[in-house]
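If you are new to this repository, start here. Below is one unmodified record pulled from the training split, so you can see the exact layout before writing a loader.
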Amino acid sequence: MSTTICQVMAFIVSSLGVAGCIVSTAMDMWSTQDLYDNPVTAVFQYQGLWRSCMRQSSGFTECRPYFTILGLPAMFQAVRALMIVGIVLGILGLLVCIFALKCIRIGNMEDSAKANMTLTSGIMFIVAGLCAITGVSVFANMLVTNFWMSTANMYQGMQNVQNRYTFGSALFVGWVAGGLALVGGIMMCLACRGLIPEESRYKAVSYNASGRNISYRTGPYKVGSGYEPETKTRKSAGYEEAARSEDGRRSYPSKYDYV
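And here is the target side for that same chain:
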């Protein structure tokens, strides 16, 4: 019962994690404009993995997708790839986990097969969570680096005021989703131990080869075996057979045989 509960809980937590990764990847607010010491507040800009948006004070929002791939920074493209890999692994892990649940019977599937599928789905969830956490952390590192570089340029007396970007809500969603997927994968791996069938124990049975027992005499006398009487019997039997005549009657010695 505990194994089934652990599996179901792991499936729910992992599903929330994978759904959070999908939502985080699709959100546009990965980076938002920092309004601190910004004289222009009528326009608010924010960016995502797929497009950049601008919202005016009147409530009108305009979004423009990135029309280039090679023109984007390499780290930006790496974040995209990590999030996509995490989503794909998470979806595959959910499909495998559905068939691995102990409460669902499919044909004559044994518990050992379910244990292997449970372990596989758990590893997929762990890798998906690590991909999501890594991608979000790399993007956050990019924001921190650009933020301090922009701040340094502003305090050096440059005339052009640069927009600084800070953490958006999508980063926090991605961190939480990656953590949920990671925890769900660990719980799934722990549930795998309860599905492994116990090893059958067989009692040891000794088999003795059957053979004819031969009795030996102990002591200073000559060792004899139980085959000697049988040999003598055979010899005497052969002598009697030779003494019989051809017609089946037993022949007795006559007085002419000694001449």
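Two things worth knowing about this chain: The CA atoms of residues 244 and 251 lie 6 Å apart. The chain is about 55% helix and 10% strand.
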